[in-house]
Amino acid sequence: MACDMVCVDWGVSLSKAKKELGDSKGISGNLDPSILFAPEELIRAEVRANIMASGGPGKHVLNLGHGVIQGTPEPAIGWLVDEAKNFRG
After folding, report:
1. Number of other residues whose CB lies within 10 A of the CB of residue 5
2. What are the domain boundaries of the chain?
C-alpha cells in the first residue's frame, strides 16, 4: 500500500495491525469514541491500555478510531488528551 500511515478503528487489534503492516507504516487511531462517555478513570485507563497495546509511548499516533460523537462531554476529551500527554508507560 502506498502510504506512510494507516488509521485503524477500535475493531482492529493494534498488535495485529502492527504485525500485518510491519515497521514501514505508522499506525493511528484505535480508541473507541464511545469511551468518552465513561467516567474519567476508565477513560484514562483506556488511553494507557491503548498506548501499551501499541508497544508503548511513541509507537503510534493515539487517536479515536472514528472521531468525536455528537454530545460527547467536553471534559472527557480533556481527560483523554491529558492522559495521552502525560503517560510514560
Report:
1. 12
2. 5-86
